[in-house]
Design brief:
This protein is mainly beta. The chain is about 15% helix and about 45% strand. It is built from two helices and seven strands; from the N terminus they run αβββαββββ. The chain has a six-stranded antiparallel beta barrel with strand order 1-3-4-7-6-5. The radius of gyration is 15 Å and the shape is globular. The N and C termini lie far apart (about 35 Å).
Amino acid sequence: MAFLTDHFFSESITLQRPTITQDELGGSIRTWADVLDASTIPASIQPLSTSEKITQGTRLLGVTHQIYIQAEPIFKRGDRVRTKRGDYYRIVGIRNEILFDKLWVLDAREILK
């Protein structure tokens, strides 16, 4: 069973949370900081098919991927996920997929570079 889990959760992600600071003119600047207790979380990132995007779109506009994790749900809407490859995803929804707090799904929108 460990092999199946290791194979399914083959990606590593880092949770990032926005912080707002002011520049020298008083304007707001958004920067992203790693959330230390969530670094390198095992995950599975799955793109949605076109039909899934349409179905998901009625519930959450703009969802392009689902990210599966087994970590505690410290994620919040508006947080960002960074992969080791340098891809970024904005979290737009969080679901407890099979209850019992064992499998969480992050509905996410890919951030294009």
